[in-house]
Structures are given as structure tokens and as C-alpha cells.
Amino acid sequence: QVQLVESGGGLVQAGGSLRLSCAASGRTFDAWAMGWFRQAPGKERDFVAAVNWIGEDKYYEDSVKGRFTISRDNAKDAIYLQMDSLKPEDTAVYFCAADPRSGGPFMQAVVSGIQKMGYWGKGSLVTVSS
Question: C-alpha distances in angstroms, 87 versus 19, 73, 77, 92, 103?
């Protein structure tokens, strides 16, 4: 079974930083696309960032560009989301996601929101106070 477990969420003041981690198990994820999504109360789950299996192609939602950085460590089957300059608008439950599809067209579809990844973690709450 595939299992994704997020950690690192918490309460932080605006302007602060947090780093989310996602540990993957159950498969070899080196060739999988992986990413982060978030969902605020009453809203749909939205794309935040993603990285392809090579780890060289990274994608970001416009509002987090320059503030968030996604990375992956294939040796540890883990991905991370370094979040700097956090804003109250970033408050949400952050979900780690993975999918065996990782080609360019799939990645673009994920970024645009028309394609969803197949596996999900349970989420980690990030609360940014003003």
C-alpha cells in the first residue's frame, strides 16, 4: 500500500517560516510525480507546488512563487515544502500527493488544476496569524 505522511505544520506568525515534510512508503517513488496541495475551510483543494521524478522540473502556484520551495530526496522517498514569508492567506490544510504519471503533459494538467494526483496524505494544518 502507498502511504504518504505529512509533518511540520503548526502555528506561525505572518512573515515567519515553516518546512513541511512528506514521507512516502509502500513503493519506489523515484519515477513518480509528487507535490503539495492545500485546502482552506469552505474552499476546494488547490495546487501549490509539484516536482517531477527527475527533481529538476518544479512548478508553483502563482501566489507562492518566490516564497515557497519544493524539493525531493529520492534516497529518503520524501519531499519537502519550505515556506517563507508566510501570509494569513496561506492558512490551510496542506496535503502531500503522489502519482506514477510524471510526464510533461500530466504535470501541466496538474498545475492547471484539471488533473488530480492519485495518492494523498491526510494533511497537516498550517495556521498563519496576523
Answer: 14, 27, 29, 11, 32
